[in-house]
Amino acid sequence: MALPTLHASCNHGASLHTKHIVSGGHDRIYLLESSFLARQSFRCTSGTQRLSAEKPRKSFSRIAWAAAETDIFTATADFQELEIPSFPRPTPPQSFKSRFADDQPRKGSDILVEALEREGVTDVFAYPGGASMEIHQALTRSSSIRNVLCRHEQGEVFAAEGYARASGKVGVCIATSGPGATNLVTGLADAMLDSIPMVAITGQVPRRMIGTDAFQETPIVEVTRSITKHNYLILNIEDIPRLIREAFYLASSGRPGPVLVDIPKDVQQQMSIPDWNQPMKLQGYLERLPKPPQLSQLEQILRLISNSRRPVVYCGGGCMNSSKELREFIDLTGIPVTTTLMGLGVFPSSDERCLHMLGMHGTVYANYSVDKADLLLAFGVRFDDRVTGKLETFASRASIVHIDVDSAEIGKNKQPHVSLCADIQPALVGINHLIKSRNLSFDFSAWMKELNEQKLKWPLNYPKDEDFICPQQAIELLHEVTQGNAIITTGVGQHQMWAAQWFKYDKPRQWLSSGGLGAMGFGLPAALGAAVANPGVPVVDIDGDGSFLMNIQELATIYVEQLPVKIMILNNQHLGMVVQWEDRFYKGNRAHTYLGDPRNEETIFPDFLKMAEGCKVPSARVVKKSDLRKAIELMLETPGPYLLDVIVPHQEHVLPMIPSGGSFNDIITEGDGRRIY
Amino acid sequence: MNVTSTPESDEETSRSGSWLVDGGLPSPSYELPSKGDVYPVEPNEDEVWRFPVLDPDWGQVEDDEPSGFRSHTLSMLVNDAPGVLNRVTGVFARRGYNIQSLAVGPAEKPGISRITTVVPGTDESIKKLLTQILKVIDVLKVQDLTHIPFAERELVLIKIAASSKERRDILDVAAIFRAKTVDLSDHSITLEMTGDLEKAAALQRLLQQYGIVEVARTGRVALVRESGVNTKYLGTQELVNKFI
């Protein structure tokens, strides 16, 4: 029977509440209203159903991942059962203690807040307004949900994103109707393109005023239709428990994405008794969730690996929850790994098999490896144009194996030879098991030797003898001082590319950056969201002066909440990445890319130190190379928020660079703004 | 997309790849199609927008195009809820597909609607469109009917300017097409006709000379033929000759 294994696509490394959702979703499929179970079940493939005694066979939500190892060879058909001792088990259902009595009518906003509590939400990022006031009043009555008040809705949606990216949980943000909702649009588009689980709740004008151009009314459901995975307009108070459950489920299952829920004010104020046991109505979606991978498909992939001489693993954001399985796979096979911008940290950068980032600003050896490879294992990636350049010449010598949870991505840009629409984690577990059980060994040492030669020949470098601070060096020093143990967020631009290249990421969810959308102003709010998700872990926002200025109001938030967010601004007084393109392709013609004071080019403008002082955030500026290390150490030692303004020259270019639509031969490895092109 | 390595591409990369191995510099004058734009700018590829939607025979996007560009009939089942049509057509717009016709109505089960649409495109591009439509939460099932035998009909209401002198001729044409008269006035006749695309196009072409005032077409509705009989094949010359 084809089980839609919902759990498989959920984040397993994630916390309690997503597992809660998973089980809640299961109980709809297999039973009507009875209590769901949350114990892992064990089922043998050899025909006899060995079930744990507690559960009746009908009422079942199975995770379905266990059997004796010998059964793999007796099973001729599906390969669904596998011993995975490390698989996180869903905890037993707790009876949720509601603040209200069962027959006590309460406001819609209280039902909404309780629904959030039942989903395990502990932190929300909410900004109040006329249409969402009721929700904020209800939040004050909740004892388990904490609100972090950001100073702009865009800041709050980026903070929810940073929270989701850093923890794997669903990020929640709440805004009011009208302008509050439209300010969420950039963050929703960013979450959509980078597949980040997020639920955005917006207030709306009362139902009878919808469509009348009322005060602060925007048709946000229509506006965000194409930038959210799904959205809801709640018109009936009875639907609130079911739709919130559906929203969280959709946000976190399959390919994660943002879900928007729009609640009119009169629904928030209406009184009713909620029914918490309504089943979700997601039949079509549940049927289309990818099934667990088949033995035959994994065997085919394994055969390709055995027959190849120059394989490369190309992994990205889809592998965020499968870092451990990926590491085991690479340990068993010895295949070199290159990651996309979204996948930094999935495979430890300090490992010698890691070829670091590939793509437009990726390393030469990573792009070389993909160009020369004869087998490209694409795990959790979407062949984005920043990575591939010219599609016809990308991996033109290789057979392509594409494993992705979203069937629409397979074959979208590049036709794979072998494709598997499945969650990468069970697929890797299966492949690892096959390799171990058959005692296969691989030898790609000649290929690794060739790549190591390229690594030595074309390393990343920057001018080391100058007396100014090189931005690349600042990031390298930061890595040294933190020993790689910090969560890094960035804005967008040259500093983002340098942060991706020069800081070595060894763990997933350590690198948070706006990849698909490339939204400037992402750095500071995402850092504050990550700090909320991971108290005690140092969070550093490597920002540019342009990106930082876009959401500078969040300085107030980080001071008020005393979040230990360290901001390191690589200040070159210009819009660096655009300047680089102007230098290379537009003969250095500056078109509105100077961010300093044109009447006073000698001074640093704007003065971020004074702005930080206004928000009571301690700050410092460093101009000389010799002061840099001490400044970074001081930044990290100071408790609470801190801003460090590092002055760097604007003539530096991000290298290497493959111009867009170019192939590996078009790679540019040297030059900077001091030459005329 | 051709992913196998061709001898030309091999040679080319080895020639310019040699600079990488030797340590020399690449020649700075590389010719890029984009000429240094943030996105690669291709010469104008307006396949999707090329075909006129409003011709009676839909710009003749039928089987004969050498590039494989033809009209595809899609049938999908969706939840009957407000906004679902907008979501589905939003996918078409977002991904750059044109809609030649659209017909929506209740399906077999209550609470489910059937959307039948005709979209021009190649087989490849329509396959990609179908995977994108399947991402919409409210969609239950999508099927491309183009390559399997299906029955299709369309209802046309056509108002022709007709004085009493031309009335007889127009009514003769209507009788041949088995079209019914639904309205009559001293200066116009409104006809109703049900049939497939070719019949509707033929009727409109014939009545063109009298002066068409208004046309209202419902758009193609189609269902799979369980018998498996392909009526297009039935009309071809070879089959006729077989029986003579």
From TrEMBL, chain A:
Cofactor binding note from Swiss-Prot or TrEMBL: Binds 1 Mg(2+) ion per subunit.
Residues that span the membrane, as ranges: none
EC number from the UniProt entry: 2.2.1.6
InterPro entries reported for this sequence: Acetolactate_synth_lsu, AHAS_TPP, DHS-like_NAD/FAD-binding_dom, THDP-binding, Thiamin_PyroP_enz_cen_dom, Thiamin_PyroP_enz_TPP-bd_dom, TPP-bd_CS, TPP_enz
An example Gene Ontology biological process: L-valine biosynthetic process
Occurrences of domain Thiamine pyrophosphate enzyme N-terminal TPP-binding (ranges): 107-217
Protein name (record): Acetolactate synthase
UniProtKB/TrEMBL annotation, chain B:
Region annotation Disordered: where it falls in the sequence: 1-41
Pfam family, one: ACT_AHAS_ss
GO molecular function: acetolactate synthase activity; acetolactate synthase regulator activity
A cellular component term, taken from the record's GO annotations: cytosol
InterPro entries given in the database record: Acetalactate_synth_ssu, Acetolactate_synth/TF_NikR_C, Acetolactate_synth_ssu_C, ACT-like_dom_sf, ACT_dom, AHAS_ACT, AHAS_small-like_ACT
Pathway entry: Amino-acid biosynthesis; L-isoleucine biosynthesis; L-isoleucine from 2-oxobutanoate: step 1/4; Amino-acid biosynthesis; L-valine biosynthesis; L-valine from pyruvate: step 1/4
Alphabetical UniProt keywords: Amino-acid biosynthesis, Branched-chain amino acid biosynthesis
PROSITE patterns (alphabetical): ACT
Ranges for domain ACT: 73-147
GO biological process, one term: isoleucine biosynthetic process
SUPFAM superfamilies xref list: ACT-like
NCBIfam families attached to this UniProt entry: acolac_sm, PRK11895.1
Sequence similarity: Belongs to the acetolactate synthase small subunit family.
Name of the protein this chain belongs to: ACT domain-containing protein
Lineage: Eukaryota, Viridiplantae, Streptophyta, Embryophyta, Tracheophyta
